[in-house]
Design a protein that fits this description.
Layout: E1 5-13, E2 24-33, E3 38-45, H1 55-58, H2 71-82, E4 86-89, H3 92-105, H4 112-116, E5 119-120, H5 121-128, H6 136-143, H7 153-170, H8 176-186, H9 214-219, H10 229-241, H11 249-261, H12 266-285, H13 292-304, H14 309-314, E6 341-345, H15 352-361, E7 365-367, E8 374-379, H16 387-395, E9 399-400, H17 402-409
Parallel strand pairs: 1-4, 4-5, 6-7, 6-8, 8-9
Antiparallel strand pairs: 1-2, 2-3
Helix pairs in contact: 6-7, 6-16, 10-11, 12-13
Domain BRCT: 332-411
GO cellular component, one term: cytosol
Protein name: DNA polymerase III subunit epsilon
């Protein structure tokens, strides 16, 4: 459709596994250029031609689908919108598998290079957000990005687009950005716009924000995983499958098929299940206590993962090496080492660029995101509930006021 464009995409689906009967029920694309400027947004519900699956996860109602196009209806326009662009998604392998299956079902398979050469903001977090977990919420919190309408295609695509732009700001001189855009433009497979355009159908506004249960809260702050890409894909699917604390027989069978597809045998899958459970245990103990509600849910998850009573008993005490949350210790004067990373958040009394220049002159390194390598967060409001402040407290990073900046750090 155009050169030099990232197509940041998100889908909501009837289930987790496109190889069976699961289908795309909503899709959104945010097109963005190399400078992080949003060029346009496009979204529509998609008639999956089957039931909607777990509506509690995506929030789409059957009545919303009245008049919605099928994927076959919109395949030509969607291919035109994606052709010549770099595909971007958070957990790209999930969305790419569904796109591949849907385009094939519509008789319009997209070139393999388009899906294979996309960018995954979940995987990129390992490079740019040391210590961040898999979830989109967790990565957004590191930058203070507001994630609106989570688990809607439009909301998640918009947040992922901002996340990609922040990555590019952190690594502005990386030639890979332009190389990917150039290769994508040269390999466009559709040159002309389709004759007819699809009228998008959008979901009705929700009456109220759905309640977020315990497991949802835990999965947004699971620790970073450093295993293979196949293992990371499997754990990401577990995040989604266990969100409602229930595994249907269909989901269990599809998890078996996915494990085989990723080259995992039974022992390897059980090892990942134990690892996943231990990540949940660590997240539950991070505040120093394990509530009855948390323990009950951990028991539920252990049962769903096929783990024994020994794993549950082990969860009753905090992991020996866990860093339990403690009161923030504000560094005393002169204790912040030269070269330390310092993050700013909120509206300061001076221009952000000037403060960053002063920090550099004092020997510190201004940074755009909260990672475990950051030494200090300076907040206009030290009691802020912003994503950056929340993430800093999760990591045990001191959060200080602007007064500390002038009176101590830059005095």
């Amino acid at each position: 459709m155009a050169s030099g464009v990232f197509s940041v995409l998100d889908t909501e689906t009837t289930g987790l596994f496109p190889g069976g009967h699961d289908r795309i029920a909503e899709i959104a694309i945010v097109r963005m250029n190399r400078d992080g400027e949003v060029l346009d947004r496009w979204e529509t519900l998609v008639n999956p031609q089957r039931d909607l699956g777990k509506q509690s996860l995506h929030g789409i109602r059957s009545c919303d689908l009245l008049g919605a196009p099928t994927f076959s209806d919109l395949a030509a326009e969607l291919a035109w919108r994606l052709s010549g662009t770099v595909l971007v998604a958070h957990n790209l392998s999930f969305d790419a598998r569904f796109l591949d299956a849907e385009f094939r079902r519509a008789g319009m398979p997209v070139p393999g290079h388009f899906l294979e050469h996309g960018l995954c903001t979940m995987r990129m977090s390992h490079q740019y957000l040391h210590g961040a977990g898999r979830s989109l919420q967790d990565c957004c919190d590191s930058f203070g990005i507001e994630l609106l309408e989570a688990h809607s295609a439009a909301g998640d695509a918009a947040a992922t687009a901002v996340l990609l732009s922040r990555y590019m700001e952190l690594d502005e001189q990386n030639p890979e950005w332009d190389l990917r855009l150039g290769r994508a433009a040269q390999s466009a497979w559709i040159k002309a716009s389709p004759g007819g355009r699809i009228i998008p159908v959008r979901r009705a506004a929700a009456d109220a924000e759905p309640a977020r249960h315990f497991l949802n809260r835990l999965t947004t702050r699971l620790p970073q995983f450093t295993g293979t890409e196949a293992q990371d894909d499997y754990l990401a699917i577990l995040d989604r499958a266990l969100m409602d604390r229930y595994l249907s027989a269909h989901e269990e069978q599809q998890l078996i098929s996915l494990a085989a597809e990723l080259g995992l045998d039974r022992a390897g899958a059980l090892e990942l299940h134990e690892l996943y459970f231990q990540q949940l245990v660590r997240a539950a103990w991070a505040d120093g206590t394990l509530t009855e509600e948390e323990l009950l849910d951990l028991k539920t998850v252990a049962g769903l993962l096929g783990l024994g009573q020994q794993s549950v008993q082990g969860a009753l005490r905090p992991p020996a090496d866990i860093e339990l949350a403690t009161a923030e210790a504000v560094p005393s004067a002169g204790k912040l080492a030269p070269g330390s990373l310092v993050v700013l958040t909120g509206d300061m009394s001076r221009a952000r660029a000037q403060i960053e220049e002063d920090l550099r002159a004092a020997g510190y390194v201004p940074h755009g995101a909260i990672t475990k390598k950051v030494s200090l967060l300076v907040a206009a409001d030290p009691d802020s509930l912003s994503g950056k402040a929340k993430k800093a407290r999760d990591y045990g990073i001191p959060v200080v006021s602007e007064d500390y900046l002038w009176d101590t750090l830059l005095a």
